[in-house]
Amino acid sequence: MKDLFRGKLVRLTSEEPEFRAKHEVNWQRDTEFHRLADSDPAELNSEKKIKEWAEKNAEGGFKPARYPFSIRALDDDKLIGFIGLWLDLVHGEAWIGIGIGEREYWGKGYGTDAMKLALQYAFMELGMQRVSLGLHEYNARALKSYEKAGFRLEGRTRQDMLREGKRTDSLWMGILRAEWLALQNG
Amino acid sequence: MHDIYKGELVRLSAMTPDEASKAFARWGRDSEFRRLIDSNVSSMASQAAIQKWLEKELDEQSPNQHWFSIRKLDDDALLGDIDLFVSNWSGREAFVGLGIGEREFWGKGYGTDVMNVILRYAFTEVNLKRVTLTVFEYNPRAIRSYEKAGFRHEGRVRKALHKEGARWDILFMGILREEWLERNRET
Amino acid sequence: MFDIATQLFESPDIRFGPIDYEKDPEIESKWTHNAEFMRLFDLEPARPMSAAIVKKQYEKLEKKIDEDKNLFHFMIRAKADDRLIGKAMIQRIEWANGNCQMRLGIGSADDRRKSYGAQALKMLLRFAFAELNMFRVTANVAEYNEGAIALLQKFGFTEEVRRRQSLEREGRRWDLLVFGLLKDEWLKQAQA
Question: Taking CB atoms and an 8 Å limit, are A92 and B127 in contact across chains?
């Protein structure tokens, strides 16, 4: 059986809350990153608060519906971002959220590689029937990356974001189990 | 879509602690009933104690648990309870436990009917892949009822029970989603 | 149009009201015992609830409304006899973006055949756009919920996303549809 957590450029990890918090504080300072990855207003949280939030997520054992990971680059072992899965167990649908906080790793295939690992995990380990995600229409790099990973565009909720005085759409994508399996064989 | 709460003789209903605790206390006095459904030593609890326990259980009910009262369709009488517990999401497996406390309704198809209802619920609402149950070797009426509902024998845990000076096996039975869908395919 | 005189919560046959802890739990408990209603209204497995459990849910809901400040909940009552007939919500409000999700359910099939749904939706949209100042309202509907789809389309909602095979029920998979209505679209048909 494959190593589920190791790809070609990245590996998925579970980090110590303190270590993760240190990095996340820096990622929060990059508001371009925030505005690409998130829909809530940007905020600056203390390292303490982020650490407590990370600890809270880790405690209480493993919840059956949440699978959060950190992402490390294989070549230099640097912590570059996060990727998480939220499951609807009854319907077999997983939602993915990904963020590459370290800018130097944008546009070089690290995100796509992490996404491929997460999809494999969702379908082969978690037994999901489909995986969904949303992104901002202004995030062209992410759109290309997700298409490469096999997601199909399913629609757009019109003008649901307001930033810098401009309204933009959210795009919604999905990949079905059969589609993903076909990609592995093809 | 099917009415997934309803069978031909019974329906699934929410458990109400005051009514259910009265019934459980009464059924608890029937030691034959207790020994058919419970491997533990038969004992009796007061209605008040049962009510308190029920309220706590229902309040803290896990999303993996689907616990219902069983009511007769014709007169709404409370017959027993049935519990579907998802033990394993990865394998999409649940355990089912059934108890019909009202003796006059034993051996008349009520057990099979409620089992059919819970299986439809398990396979087409919770979308599970298999349902498992355990039943005692000395409960042939239940074994027959479960066979009628489509469960297959999968093995026995030998001499796991000690009742009335003898040792008895606990039987494991199971039904798979494909098997149930095949049995219930609309033609 | 600065119309503060027209009531936000009154319609010809129905009104929006708060939770009545004495009367409502029993009625809502009955709805939860109706598998058809549950499968139209909720995507989680249908689960009958006792009045006691419903009451606890109300308490949790009112606490959430206080804490999260991004949720509004209304009981729908028939004016003739003050009977509880349904519920309506605006939830997941993103204040910065001016968007939210709506939910609407009429408990009994008989009541669903009357115009109550349309009256409730009209009030709910006015609340979202003219009182909460939302820019858009989203509604998620299962593809098998034809009644809801027809009602949303009547009010000018557009089908924006088809989440293919997102749901499983009755042994098969269904699409989940995402509908959206923008403020100027609402204004156009509200004035018509």
Answer: yes
Query: Mutate which of A90, A121, A130 to test chain B, going by most B C-beta atoms within 10 A?
Result: A90
**Residue B67 domain-assigned (yes or no):** yes
Crossing angle for the helix pair B110-124 and B140-149, to the nearest 10 degrees: 40
Please give the pLDDT value at position C164. Answer: 96
Task: Find residues 124-163 of chain B whose CB sits inside 8 Å of chain A.
Answer: 126-127
B177 or A63, greater pLDDT: B177
Residue B2 lies in a domain: no
State the residue range of the domain holding A129: 10-185
> Residues C47-74: what's their mean pLDDT?
95
Backbone angles phi, psi at A135, to 5 degrees: -155, 165
> C99: which residues sit within 8 A by CB, 6+ positions away?
A157, A160, A161, C93, C134, C135, C136, C137, C138
Fold type of domain C14-191: Aminopeptidase (3.40.630)
Q: Which residues of B touch A91 (CB under 8 A)?
A: 127
Q: Tell me the pTM.
A: 0.90
Cα separation, B35 vs B39, in Å, equals 7
CATH of the domain at B36: 3.40.630.30
pLDDT at site B186: 66
d(CA C82, CA B160): 59
Number of domain units in chain A: 1
For residue B26, name the pLDDT band (cuts at 50, 70, 90). Answer: very high
Residue A135 belongs to a domain: yes
Mean per-residue pLDDT of chain C = 95
Asked whether the predicted pLDDT for residue B33 surpasses 60, the reply is yes
User: Are residues C26 and C92 in contact, defined by beta-carbon separation less than 8 angstroms?
Assistant: no
